[in-house]
Amino acid sequence: MPTGSSSSRVPVLKALGRLLRRPRAALGVASVVVAGCVALSTSISPPFDPLPPPRAAAYHAWWMGGQWHATPWRRMDRLFFFAVEADGRGSIVNARGWPERWRDLSESTRAAGIPLDVTLTVLGDQDVSALFSDPQRVLRLTEETALLLEAAPGVGLHLDVEAFGTLAPAAIAGYRRFVRDLRRRILALPRRVAFSGFIVAGTAGAALHDRQTLELFDFCVVQGYDSYEAGSERSGPVAALRGPHPATWESALKHLTDLGLSPQRMLFSVPLYAYEWPTRGPEPGSATRGKGRMIPYGPVPVELLKHDGASVVSRTDRHGSRRDELSGSPYYVFEDKTGWHQGWYEDEPSLRQKLEFARSAGVSGAALFVLGYDDNRLADIVIDMVQPPR
User: Fold this and answer.
1) In this structure, what CATH number is given to the domain that contains residue 181?
2) Which of 154-158, 241-245, 318-322 shows the lowest per-residue confidence on average (mean pLDDT)?
3) Which of 117, 262, 299, 373 is most buried, with most CB under 10 Å away?
């Protein structure tokens, strides 16, 4: 994911500082420090009824600026602002201008009656382990998150914590306490807002969650992409439905339903981008010669992505497209003076196949990542498939 400079932390530090000077009771804070130990809530009282999940949702990424205006955002049931970033110390280190620079987005969605949630990310094994193994750091992030929500009344929280390696039991337990405490605080807000989680694909990535933790979310977005990603040693489908791949929609659905998460409370995330790798040959699954790169499905202004203007549309117009029979995903190949290249992506037929599978399993809907990456060539197709007729 693109990252920005630490200067974006200044507005959020000022906002959090103003809020921290308010009476503590206004924040609904019930964490206490006793003899140097942090005690977080361990139960939810009173019990709550989950808010209904959306059918069609999408992530608006900060680096896309005002591009959401040119997308079918009004057809969405919910939007996620992506993202406010936290680190292993339990601090919000980059708010990407939230909420001050995004008043137009929040006011427009409110006027249209479309719920908006802010995404809080903690990404990578090192930061996840360092944060959730330390109760004091967990408390710090809990406090800052509560202040983040107070700064934007009526906006929900979407929690995106991603780790792919083996985590220590202390880190897993710390994460689960964190989710429980956030749920209690969100229920204490003057206005009911959604609390949802992003669940990474594969059993290793999903190890943070057990049945009790999953039940604390109103709904979950299941990672439906990055079966193969930029650093993969072989080329392959970005979003695999089934087959011998690192992560598939079938395996993710089975793992989460085995944990007790109802498909009716799931959305699958849908990629609107490709991964393009330098490869050893043109065959599917060829070894890669180096790190791949993400390119959008449709043309995106170069000043937004700081790229060379490449897109799936421009690549396939020039090189054609092939389809992998096993995964159902399309890909293109070409050769230049450096060697072979492969780009894997999703198109209308492959998305229909996956969304039909999800619908037949009772999955609630789909979440597009990233809104605007497709030049509106796929978004309406996905929305039409997951939205009930109006």
Assistant:
1) 3.20.20.80
2) 241-245
3) 373
